[in-house]
Amino acid sequence: MLFLFLWAVNSMDELRIAIGQVNCIVGNIRGNCARIIEYIEKARAQEADIVTFPELAVTGYPPEDLLLKRGFIDENLKALGELAESVNDIVVVVGFVNRQGGSLFNAAAVIYKGKIKGVYHKALLPNYGVFDEKRYFEQGDKPLAFRYGDVIFGVSICEDIWHKEGPTGVMAGAGAALICNINASPYYAGKIHVRAEIAKNRTRENSVFIAYTNMVGGQDELVFDGQSFVMDKKGRIIAQADAFREEMLVLDIPVKELGKGIKGPQSAHTGKRVQVIPVSGRVLTRKRPALSLPDRKPLEPVAEVYEALKLGLHDYVVKNGFQKVVIGLSGGIDSSIVAALAVDSLGRDNVIGVFMPSGYTSEESRVDTRELVQNLGIRLFTIPIRKVYKSYISTLRSVFSDLREDITEENIQARIRGNILMALSNKFGWLVLTTGNKSEMSVGYATLYGDMAGGFAVIKDVPKTLVYKLSWYRNSLGDVIPVRVLTKEPTAELKPGQKDSDTLPPYEHLDPLLKDYVEENRDLNAITSRELSREAVRKVLRMVEVSEYKRRQSPPGIKITPKAFGKDRRMPITNQYRGK
Q1: Which of 72, 336, 442, 471 is in the most buried spot, having the most CB atoms within 10 Å?
Q2: Which residues are catalytic?
Q3: Is residue 261 domain-shared with residue 313, that is, in the same domain?
Q4: CA proximity to 241, closest of 60, 23, 476
Q5: Could you give the percent of the chain with pLDDT greater than 70?
Q6: Based on the domain organization, do 481 and 378 belong to the same domain?
Q7: What is the 3-state secondary structure (H, E, C) of 57-73?
Q8: d(CA 331, CA 22)
Q9: What's the confidence (pLDDT) of residue 408?
Q10: Which pLDDT tens digit goes with each residue over 376-392?
Q11: What is the pLDDT of residues 93-116, one digit of tens each?
Q12: What CA–CA distances, in Å, run from 265 to 7, 233, 275, 472?
């Protein structure tokens, strides 16, 4: 009875929860922990009771085969212990890699006053799309709840909340009215709405609040968009962090809405026993000034993609130790939007353009390139390739004798340009940004060792029709891309009078078809097109399949659709299946 009395006299009226939406770097364990400690102090300065951090925040996400290195796991555990020693009068929930025996677990530690009070192991391991967690981790089977003052809260990790059969109901059955769900949920366009719907289902099913903490930042092909939120029992988002930037989100939840006391260690949902771990029974009554929550306006869909590309590009360049990037400018829309993104994410002083005219380059392309460069304020090198091209043709004349010109001569031009860009990269340490879009990469309308040569493919997962929308959006912020670039017919300018439409269907017809086949996984019989004949559709699908060998050799690029080439879509190169 004395124990219960102490709980009562030390009750608090509101629980102040903070979400540390931080940008972690895979493998930078010390740096990640320093960032976490910095945000813990920010939360303490705002007198928060609980602060949460993303999934695997200590190691960065996804660590992939670093998890197979024993030293990596050891350093992560040592860093967590040191982090715990620095925690004082605030509850910290943070993701790390735990090891028990010979098994690894995707884990969350709950820390208070220098001690790890409990460790939760992720129960549901995603193994689809970009996720490969069953390769590394064992599945957790012990749901936990924690008691802090009058509040019982549960801890779960990412996928755990996506399924009704996950641990949310088990924790709620043990009295938890708040679920701290920590995530490293990668971005694709509109995903925030999918997350919100999933969380809404869990809140309504279990009468719980959910504090959804998401990572932010770029990691190779992935972008983590943040947009952490707190949702009430009715499925309403009552507070939300910004998209694509670090932030500390802090809000108060009335304790009376979180319930009091333990309903019982036996879950009413599944019959599983739930351990409820005491964090602190003696909680100081705090008189804190009221918080004013910022009014968040969601980004428009095209603006959201633009910000994702900016962050993904910035973090790939900076986290990999580059400062400047170089882009081959053609006077076309793809290279123009890549240049605009580079300037917006890295600054104009760190972007170099290279214009490499050939005998087929139009005067319009020269003028449009100069205008783009002037508008962006970037440095431009003009390096003509006509003499180099003639040298190639002369060198190959004896071998190519009596053969007509074809795509070979077109590709030589593209490869000369690729060589020039890579020479500049080698000499000056600049990162080459390629400019191919998803539509072109899908059907192989790109040249290996030519326009595909480079270190990072910014718009690799952006369909051509979306490239136009992004370009119009960027100009709405201030005109940088020449209007003619936005309106002229696309062309590679590798032979006289060439247009993309000579080889491909119009992009407004091609992109829906590619979405059906690549992202929706539909076969020929399930794909219909009012604009394209069945034979034209069959030809496009054939182009997609025979171009897999090219895509395997392309640089990484930023994922912004539900299914990107690479980790999302893994097709064999040697593949004779063509469907029905």
Answers
A1: 336
A2: 55, 122, 158
A3: no
A4: 23
A5: 95
A6: yes
A7: CCCCCCCHHHHHCHHHH
A8: 38
A9: 93
A10: 999 999 999 999 999 99
A11: 999 999 999 999 999 999 999 999
A12: 18, 22, 7, 57
